[in-house]
Amino acid sequence: MTTTDDLAQASVEDVAGLIASKQVSPVEVTQGMLERIERLNPTLNAYLTVTADAALDEARLAGDEIAAGRRRGVLHGVPVAIKDLFATKGVRTTAGSRILEDWRPHEDATVVTRLRDAGAVSLGKLGMHEWAYGVSSDNAHFGPVRNPWDTERIPGGSSGGSGAATAAGLAYATLGSDTGGSIRIPAAFCGCVRLMPTYGRASLHGAIPLSWTLDHAGPLTRTVRDAAIVLQAISGADAGDPNSEDREVPNWLDGVERGPRGLRIGVPAQHFWENLDPEVERLCRAALAALEAAGASVREVPYPHAAAYAGAVTAVMFGDAAAYHAPNFPSRRDEYSPQVAALLDLGTQLPAVAYIDALRTLHRARSGEADAPLDGLDVLAVPTVPMPAPTIAGMREHDITLDIVMSTPIFDLTGQPVLALPCGISAENLPASISFIGRRWDEAAVLWAGRAYEQVRGTFPAPPLT
Known about the structure:
This protein is of the alpha/beta class. It has helices at residues 12-20, 26-44, 52-67, 110-117, 160-168, 184-190, 224-234, 278-293, 306-325, 338-348, 352-369, 392-397, 401-404, 409-414, 443-457; strands spanning 47-50, 79-83, 121-126, 138-139, 143-144, 174-178, 193-196, 216-221, 264-268, 297-301, 379-383, 418-425, 431-437. Helices cover 38% and strands 14% of the residues. β2 (79-83), α4 and β3 form a beta-alpha-beta unit.
């Protein structure tokens, strides 16, 4: 196994095992990742900032601690990377914007601190859509992030660098944020796993917001088990984030290997299966059929509130974003891209009554209404996005953002946990993705469903660029 190639595509668990058994050191693993970033990042533009010297220092410390018998856990010595809207002490944090392009925070975001406490090695900061307000990661200030399956295509957004880096083996796990699909869309387009936890599970202290009411922090990984491991590290109440909740953080690997037999899956009858690319529908239906053949039960269920949730999430997002940017917009309008400025214009024009009505819908959804379709079920299953990744040029010519986010924002509004993972490769050699949705605070169910599908599907291939 070579550090720069085979090892780069290993799982967190596998590389952690090699480190624990002293077959490789954290320094060797980190150096290999840095060499790979140097080779591939000029093509992908996944990283905005690479902290090579600091990463090697952290790796040396991890190696010394492990050698002294002070191993902190699975993530100790494992290289990861951070979306560039999570504050990192002394390291520039841009949120993909011109306004913050030289900002160096005085403290880490809570989720970054928790990864450091777990012993993870930070490789640097990942590119994203400007201010997290879009799905292409075609950044007007720092250039487009490119998809490792086809570099002429978008990686999704807003966490495009996180998706590209994870899929291409430029980090073993990455952090992203999701407000309307901002991690699930890159996971779908880049062919990796994304776990969006229940709203309030992971702290947003130190994360530059798009919407305080909708933002979720969470991991991108290449396996379901790895997603559980990273979520375990970053979860828990935080006094710095009043929206985080004091809930037990269970060991999500317990029970994750139960397999498909006995898993009860509901397929919403409304909204989610409409206007799909035929290849995406074929691959998602095939995934459900494979689970059913392996012992899961699959049945159609009503989902009556899709339209109401989709409408409400737009009002909440537009209103929150306009409020956050009010100190700088429109007074510094020329420092925003035209696309983001246009969205902020819509937010400034939003009637207060529309925002309040949307919040009432959100509170109903999070108070049990959105969990009701799961009665007698473990998870719901829907296509993550309705089509494979479009081209960068095509998105510039005809922006199809509204088509891409047909379904993903609904679950940011409901605050339910969602796990997205690849379910096949289209005729154009692009990944498709299926999502499993659970009740609030039941991440265990979506991890079980995702792992059960992984067992049926087998190993998913790495993208061609690698």
